[in-house]
Amino acid sequence: MPNPSGGLSIAKLIAQRIGSGVLVLVAVSMIVFGATYGLGDPVRAMLGNEATPERVRAVAHELGTDRSLVEQYIAWVEGLLTNEAKSFATGRPVSELLGPRLLNSMILAGSAGLVAVLLGVAGGIASAFWRDRSLERLASLISLVLVALPEFVTGIFLVALLSTGVLHLLPAVYIGSGTVLDPLALILPMTTLVLAAAPYILQLARATMIEVLESDYVRMARLKGISELRVVMIHALPNAIGPIVQTIAIVLAWLAGGVVVVEFLFRFPGIGTAMADAVTNRDLPTVQAISLLIAGLYIVLNILADVIGLLANPRVRHGSR
Amino acid sequence: MKEIIRGLTVSRRSFLKKTAALTAAGSALLTGGLVGAQTAPNGKPRRGGRLVVGVTGGGAKDKLDAHTPISLPDTARVHNLYDRLAIRNENFDLELALAEEVTPSSDASKWTIRLKQGVTFHNGKDITADDVIFTFQRILDKAAPKNEARSISFVDPNGFRKLDARTVEVNLLWPSGILLDALSGYAFGIVPVGYDPANPVGSGPFKLKSFTAGDKSIFTRFDGYWRPDQPYLDEVVIIDFPDESARINALLGGQVDAIDQVPLGQIPIVEGNSALRVLDSPTGSWLPFTMRVDAPPFNDVRVRQAFRLIVDRKEMIRQALAGRGRIGNDIYSPFDPCYPSDFPQRDQDIDQAKSLLRQAGHQDLEVELVSSPVGAGLVEAAQVFTKQAESAGVKVRLNRKDAGQFYGKEWLSYPFSQAVWYTRSYLLQAGRCALPQSPFNETHWTDPAYARLIQEAIATIDDKKRCEIIHQAQKLEWDNGGYLIWGFPNQVGAYSARVSGFKPDKTGAPMNSYGFGKVWFNA
Description:
Order of helices and strands of chain A: HHHHHHHHHHHHH
Distance between the termini of chain B: 54 Å
Largest sheet of chain A: none
Low-confidence stretches of chain B: 1-41
CATH class of the largest domain in chain A: Mainly Alpha
CATH superfamily of the largest domain in chain A: MetI-like
Strand order of the largest sheet of chain B: 8-9-10-1-11-20-12
Distance between the termini of chain A: 16 Å
Largest sheet of chain B: 7 strands, mixed
Mean pLDDT of chain A: 81
Strand content of chain B: 15-25%
CATH architecture of the largest domain in chain B: Alpha-Beta Complex
Largest interface: A-B, 63 and 62 residues
Structural class of chain A: mainly alpha
Shape of chain B: globular
Low-confidence stretches of chain A: 1-6
Number of helices of chain A: 13
Radius of gyration of chain B: 24 Å
Oligomer: heterodimer
CATH class of the largest domain in chain B: Alpha Beta
Shape of chain A: flat
Helix content of chain B: 25-40%
CATH topology of the largest domain in chain B: Dipeptide-binding Protein, domain 1
CATH superfamily of the largest domain in chain B: Dipeptide-binding Protein, Domain 1
């Protein structure tokens, strides 16, 4: 039962979180802008080793990289606010370059995230429920190994197994058109991401559930003769949700960065490949936009996790702190 | 959170090697039995089919402009969309293409270009003298000079005279006998008057069907192509592959029919696969060490000579290029008819190198070598050299930069560094890197006697006489120059055994100069 003062404090806490999120985003934007200028001369990187000095001068003037850092920063902020930041590589707005790719990445990371969360949480609960049985120990060991493997290793192994080496079932890389996704080609990159993310969620969900299952009030519920399923679902799970959601948020935020490596490996037309390309070409506006997008996603996911954690915590919910 | 764990696992490279071996074993098992012995590939050309090619690099800055290609996918597109007045063929010989005649006047002050009869653009329009003049002027445009502007700087932008519908007189600012050579550059595609790269009308074997920057481009056969019977394919698809493991996986998995560059470590895997063929082309590309002749310690010619004697060239080819290359003798343009075969081959001579360094007062020399992975084998060569220099008592500090930093403001002023150069004739190459006004003179070589000889050679039409002058210039470079040219790397691509017509190509442009007009699918 919510009480008025509790509701107010939650609203205040949420406002605080959002406020600090905005501050962090502003700080990140400054760091991103500063750091990207350490990447080297974009004009020479774009033109390659056979660009004549005349062309270098012409292109530098065209892109505005011959102006001072402050002038460029002001122009950059203006560009951000008006959505007119132009890619050095295409001369078109960055949003035009990133729009379809962002959608593709969201489909990839989103579907991988959904599957990973479902598998991870369900696996974690089941694992806690049947803990220390031999089959559970084996499953736990496998998931620990998967946690330790970097995603590109898993990816390369999957490709060798299913595409180029042992079997020829799935396409090794994505070569379809960039706007319409081919479900068959989505399987390998998605599986790679799931195999990287799900075991992590599983391990934390398992640990959290075990802790809750061994707490006094759950024992009390058991002593009252409530069925084990009911104990897990009604009494234990709500108390485990806070920490689990925190973990999920971290893992989802990691996915936003993890897609970069996986997309590159599978030639997937998302923001990850765009990022790799933009860094190679010193396409600074695109690098900055993607960095800010990923930073923004981290912040939003963290705020969401905080809020869900607050709402799931009865002490906060009932205002008795 | 994963970063910590990641550090403990196998490095990416070593893992790649292992999985590659696994892959090779797997595919050998699968395909070995089915395809059987290597079948004779070169039957009669057949029509039809769609060739899918994976090309290295590419990205958002991909373009279709005939005259400003940068990346390899750009280069591949330019080779297929546009045709030139002349080309360098597989043997690096000059060959007329759209032109039936390109001849200098006796004093090399002007040239006459006559187009072949009946050559047309993709839109059906005849190629005329006006188009040739337009193309020249577009490349020379002062406001936006194109890639090849520098190689034809002797052409007077206002000196064109249309003699008839398909004949142009080109007047020069100063005499030059190398116009035909310059015209063979791949960024010299003839385009129609009013050309707009957004609507890339050319006269190459393929027309554009669709193009997505950073992804792929699709081409269809141009039925009006002037070379008899060509092209054989109905369609060509060029796909960007920035990542080399994605590229090789696409080939091994059968998603592409050809890739333009095989990573050196993966060549044995492709060779072991009977469904695939390796296209191994010796080229005139070169990956020199560059020593600035005006910066210490390299301003002392004895130090430069010592460094040229420190390097073990055979070992360099073996280690840095996995054996895919030929040793060099400190002179570029090995396929130029004027390449000096009479200069003795320089070999490793540590005693002599030590003695030269001693004479120069540098017995305990320590130098910084600026390297960068801007070409295959470059960083590896730097590492091998560092090791080899130890035996002569020279300590080389390796300063490895990433591509963007390497080509930054300090580029072309590193005292000791490396470079990547493609195949060119001697005079065109010298114009790019060995004259006071050269745009990429990384060794700061400005010898006035040398420059005079090059100028004289450029103005000479007689081949034999020109070679004699070039020979003197080469001697100056061989004795005093700042380049350490240890070798010429091969260009290694791969393609499906179902495809025929690819030939090894000395020009250094991958996949037989991306010559998809010349290839076909076997029956």
